[in-house]
Amino acid sequence: MFRIGKEEIDAVARVIESKNLFKINDAMHETEQCEELMREKFGVKRALLVTSGMGALASALIGMGIGPGDEVIVPAYTYIATAMAVVAAGAVPVIVDIDETYTMSAEKAAEKINPRTKCIIPVHIQGFPCAMDEIKKLADENGIMILEDACQADGGSYKGKRLGAIGNAGALSFNQFKIITAGEGGALITNDDKIYERALIYHDSSAIAFFGDQLKDVTEPQFCGTEFRTNEISAAILHQQLLKLDDILFDLRKNKRALTELIGNVCRISPSNDIEGDCGTTLPVVFKDEQSARQFSASIGVGNYLPIDTGKHIYDHWTAILEKRGAFRPEMDPFRFPENADHLPDYKNERYPVTLDLLARTVFILVDPDWTDNNIDEISQGIIKAAKGLSHLAKNEKNK
Q: In this predicted structure, what is the pLDDT of residue 296?
């Protein structure tokens, strides 16, 4: 979360004063207005607010018809929710390495495609755009669908098109730690009516037919789903956050660009698939080894960390996936479904060395949209000092 204040407070107050907190109402219509603004901002035909990014991913996969017998490709570096959404649909997640941009390697993904592959989930982690031209070419050549996980990249873009709006569907997240927030929340965006209709039914099957005219013009038959329905208070907050999104992104990108220019001659900055579309939240500095990265991280005095330390964002910490426990009851566990039984990955013994190596020798420097020029100068000086200190240490080691 970056900017939140009186606009959100006033919006929530208006909803409470209306005494209509349910999403279908005759008062504020915040959910409808928010979805309309999202469609306009992301350039898509359909938008569906849900309770989380995981809810958006799962609803999208159900909307795509993904299920038992299917495989879905996911990167080794993403929050566990990406893989768990695949399991929630009854399918099997297949893991692939990332490349030096920290996003899915299209080359590695190509190696895992087989007749069971039905979908690929490129993840725009840390606001870094995936190489969507390569991903799209791969999907088109093999007749598989693309679900963009843009949960950490709200509003980012690739070659001028918003992330999440390039594939068959996209998922966004608005929890406390995202670019814009409603405390919790998510959204599915798509141009595909069938994906939308199925996701609409799935995300709120307990109420979709009983409130308002939500099923008007829907041709897909009703089926039992789950409950990811949002509410007017969350929608009111998110509505105001969406209005601030582009200003936040402008300042993030401006500050990341300024910091990059100041330290670029001293530090090695990782490449980007589209630096103009990059959200600007994170400046990745890569080192020759983990020891150097940790020494640098301990020295620079600004919000930073090694991505190797982020736990559930890395495949070897996905305990439930590695141990193939897809549900509490074995009968409900996709890893035990007969349709999946003959092609389960050996998760515990699979290794993705590029992912582990890159994440262990990288430092992510977190960018703030509200940094002043003085802040950036001070931060850059600390970074340069820390980087030169590593060079000095290396020289001393060599002379011993």
A: 96
